[in-house]
């Protein structure tokens, strides 16, 4: 049963390798291959197994790194050697001439199974699929966790690797927002006593006013009485009588300081009082007309200073952890394409809107040229990320199986090692690695799924093989 399963898996590997070689050859890619397998015009060299399958490419008869997708000849007229599908396969370089590799400087120990099975031999041999066992020399570290691919396999697969470095990872969070008034810059004009509106200034909703501009002229019996008492106390103070509380009463009624100063200077109580604007701003509401009566506390005007304004962004609950106070924000107005404002996150509201599962984030902006108007729609981009650089790799380097996250380390010379890692924050096509690799390691960016698949296949084949027995050393 194990033999049947092993044969099936091996056939799958042969088909995958053959197909890859075929297409690589027809694209004209420079694919390395064994120089010993074929003779002139695709004939077999004496002592070598016959190739099967289609011719996938041609290589220089002298073993030089020269390849062709079509038959061709050297400058001296010799034909390139044809390489067939069955001859361009193996997880490692073919070992057709182990004696030539075992030179005097290296001692041959044994031969190991080319498919990674726990099977070794003291003499050269082939496996059930006709693949040569690979020689192992003294001093070689045979690491079962490392996958070794031939240069041809590496080149055909398009393996590309990159060195791991520390980077500052940022991830922009793009959310909708609306322009809102700064609540601290809104003022309501009112009186603290009953009054009659004698005259309203020529200001309407939307007009801009400055601090101190006259808004209305009012008559208030209570303010007039308090002013008369204040004048009496001023005259008594001139005769040495201490001043009473009339001045304080006028201040409690909200009479502007300039009106109190005018009574003190002129020694006259005006019948009507000009009520000024308390601050610069835009008239949002006008609630008075000439001749009407107002009660204490009624809103006469509502003003707002638009020099500083808020943008309230709706951030999904899942992105809240990535946003911090002070994070940079870019605002683009939908009504003014091409106009960009820069600001910072000033407040993350301490509640989640139940209906939308979003949290409001406030960004404070200087309203240059008054372009930002209340209730405008805006597109908000909030920068997020770690404050310090972290080890990071491109997203394509990570294989996520659902239960494990793996990267493939490039150990050089066609050797690759799968390594389980722990991930951190993502952003800008990069992902932080908190555990599993070190700075300076090289990780595979492309074709890593193919390498990982081969690693899993080897693990499966090893599970089907017999218990490993270490051979005796070959005596010279």
TrEMBL record:
SUPFAM superfamilies named in the record: HlyD-like secretion proteins (SSF111369)
All copies of domain CzcB-like C-terminal circularly permuted SH3-like, residue ranges: 391-451
Residue ranges annotated for the CusB-like barrel-sandwich hybrid domain, each copy included: 186-304
GO CC annotations, alphabetized: membrane; outer membrane-bounded periplasmic space
PANTHER family, per the entry: CATION EFFLUX SYSTEM PROTEIN CUSB
Family classification: Belongs to the membrane fusion protein (MFP) (TC 8.A.1) family.
NCBIfam families linked to this entry: RND_mfp
Gene3D superfamilies cross-referenced by the UniProt entry: 2.40.30.170, 2.40.420.20, 2.40.50.100
One Pfam family recorded for the sequence: Beta-barrel_RND_2
Origin superkingdom: Bacteria
CusB-like beta-barrel domain: residues covered: 309-384
A GO biological process held by the record: copper ion export
Provenance organism: Bosea vaviloviae
Gene Ontology terms for molecular function: transition metal ion binding; transmembrane transporter activity
Name under which the protein is recorded: Efflux transporter periplasmic adaptor subunit
UniProt keyword annotation of Signal present: yes
């Amino acid at each position: 049963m194990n033999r049947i399963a092993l044969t099936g898996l091996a056939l799958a590997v042969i088909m995958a390798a053959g197909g890859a070689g075929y297409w690589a050859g027809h694209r004209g890619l420079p694919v390395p291959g064994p120089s010993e397998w074929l003779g002139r015009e695709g004939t077999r060299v004496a002592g070598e197994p016959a190739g099967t399958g289609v011719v996938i490419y041609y290589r220089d008869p002298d073993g030089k790194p020269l390849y062709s997708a079509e038959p061709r000849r050297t400058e001296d007229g010799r034909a390139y050697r044809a390489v067939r599908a069955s001859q361009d396969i193996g997880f490692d370089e073919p070992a057709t001439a182990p004696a030539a590799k075992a030179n005097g400087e290296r001692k041959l120990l044994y031969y190991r199974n080319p498919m990674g099975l726990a099977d070794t031999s003291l003499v050269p041999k082939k496996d059930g699929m006709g693949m040569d066992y690979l020689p192992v020399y003294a001093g070689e570290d045979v690491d079962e966790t490392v996958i070794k691919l031939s240069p041809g396999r590496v080149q055909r697969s398009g393996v590309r690797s990159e060195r791991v470095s520390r980077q500052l990872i940022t991830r922009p969070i793009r959310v909708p927002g609306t322009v809102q008034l700064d609540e601290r810059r809104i003022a309501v004009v009112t009186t603290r006593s009953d009054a009659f509106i004698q005259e309203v200034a020529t200001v309407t909703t939307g007009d801009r006013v400055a601090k101190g501009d006259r808004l209305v002229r009012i008559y208030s019996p209570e303010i007039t009485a308090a002013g008369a008492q204040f004048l009496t106390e001023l005259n008594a103070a001139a005769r040495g009588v201490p001043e009473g509380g009339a001045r304080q009463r006028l201040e409690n009624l909200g009479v502007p300081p300039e009106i109190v100063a005018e009574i003190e200077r002129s020694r006259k109580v005006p019948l009507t009082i000009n009520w000024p604007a308390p601050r610069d701003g835009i008239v949002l509401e006008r609630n008075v007309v000439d001749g009407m009566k107002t009660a204490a506390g009624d809103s006469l005007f509502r003003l707002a200073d638009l020099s500083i304004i808020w943008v309230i962004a709706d951030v999904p609950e899942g992105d809240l952890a990535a946003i911090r106070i002070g994070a940079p924000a870019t605002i683009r107005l939908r009504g003014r394409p091409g106009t960009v404002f820069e600001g910072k996150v000033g407040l993350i509201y301490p509640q989640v809107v139940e209906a939308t599962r979003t949290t409001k984030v406030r960004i404070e902006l200087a309203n240059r040229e008054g372009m930002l108007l209340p209730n405008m729609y805006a597109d908000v981009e909030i920068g997020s990320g770690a404050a310090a650089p972290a080890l990071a790799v491109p997203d394509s380097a990570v294989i996520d199986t659902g239960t494990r996250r793996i990267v493939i380390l490039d150990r050089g010379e066609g050797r690759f090692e799968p390594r389980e890692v722990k991930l951190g924050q993502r952003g800008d096509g990069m992902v932080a690695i908190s555990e599993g690799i070190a700075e300076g390691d090289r990780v595979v960016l492309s074709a890593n799924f193919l390498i990982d698949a081969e690693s899993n296949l080897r693990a499966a084949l090893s599970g089907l093989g017999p218990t490993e027995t270490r051979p005796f050393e070959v005596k010279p």
